[in-house]
Amino acid sequence: MQYHLRQIAVFLDMHALNQPEIFVRNAKSVFSDDLKLTDEATRDAVTKYVKAFEAWSKRGITGA
Predict the structure, then answer these.
(1) Total domains in the fold of the chain
(2) 28 is in which domain, residue-wise?
(3) Which of 24, 25, 29, 47 is least enclosed by beta carbons within 10 angstroms?
(4) Would you list the DSSP string of 16-52?
């Protein structure tokens, strides 16, 4: 579904954060029963994404 949504966004020329991408496979294995992210590699990927999203969102405000 995510891939098809991306195709639609590209067709509509929407402003999207294209990189980095996150695909979490087997989410049950990377989260504990109390929903804490336990997988270090996934945590690193999410951290990288959040930092990129912050920078991307500020571009829209400042026009940089």
Answers:
(1) 1
(2) 2-62
(3) 25
(4) ---SS-----SHHHHB-TT--B--HHHHHHHHHHHHH
